[in-house]
Amino acid sequence: MKPLDEAAEETTEQRSFRRRIPGILTGVLLALAAALLVYVTVCMVQHRPAVFFGRCILQVVTGSMEPTLHVGDCILVQEGDPATLQAGDIITYVSEDLQTKDLLITHRITEITQDGSFITRGDANPVEDALTVRPDQIQGKYIRKLHIFGFMTGYAGTRKLLLLVVMLGVVAMAVHEVRSLMKIGREMREESEAEMHERLMREAIDKEKARLAAAHYQPEETASEKEEQP
């Protein structure tokens, strides 16, 4: 068996670790959010999709889907089975039209042909797209707009990056201050607990002394004392 003081020390360490868990989780989440923000911003500046975990974030660059999607909107597109798509769904696909070759187009499905290809049209366009879309061209289905990234669309590329750096600096300072406050609070709680533990120990010792005194406790004679007796 371990001594009581070692067991108490381990318990204190465990409590201290549990107190640090919220701060650790908060730091991890903020780091992930910052990394995602940087990644998406860089992709937007370079006019390419930000792809992660079967999803991608795109920025609308034309008005072909007005008024559903506006120029500058950031949208979330999710991969899926093309067989589940229906007329009325908005999809993003790789264009094979000569004018937009290899570009990503986000248009609405107006009809599904017998061979499984899709007829598409932009909401603002008067006619359907010239070429049908095969299932293998589809990148995903439009899910929703991402307004959290909308602030980036009104700035030039360098201004976006500058704004991002400033925001990350502010977030880093806020995280540092929060962690400092949490550390101070934790140290104050630990100091208070130590003082309380010491006070309880003193009270227990005083009670034990009083009990022994009340019972007229006498210590046993030592061997040397016995030898001195006649």
Q: Could you tell me how far the N terminus lies from the C terminus, measured between alpha carbons in angstroms?
A: 46 Å
CATH structural class of the largest domain:
Mainly Beta
Q: What is the gyration radius calculated from CA atoms?
A: 35 Å
Strand-and-helix sequence, N→C? Answer: HEEEEEEEHH
Low-confidence sequence ranges:
1-9
What would you give as the CATH superfamily of the largest domain?
Umud Fragment, subunit A
Our count of helices gives: 3
CATH topology of the largest domain: Umud Fragment, subunit A
Quick check: average pLDDT?
A: 76
Number of domain modules: 2
User: What structural category characterises the helix and strand content?
Assistant: alpha+beta
CATH architecture group name of the largest domain = Ribbon
- DSSP helix fraction: 40-55%
List how many beta strands DSSP finds.
Answer: 7
Percentage of residues in DSSP E strands:
15-25%
The global form is elongated
The main pleated sheet reads as: 7 strands, antiparallel
Describe this entry's structure for a reader.
The protein has three helices and seven strands, in the order H-E-E-E-E-E-E-E-H-H. The chain folds into two domains: 4-43 and 161-214; 49-151, Umud Fragment, subunit A (Ribbon), CATH 2.10.109. 46% of the residues lie in helices and 17% in strands. The protein has 230 residues and is α+β, with helices and mostly antiparallel strands. A hairpin with a 2-residue loop joins strand 1 (50-52) and strand 2.
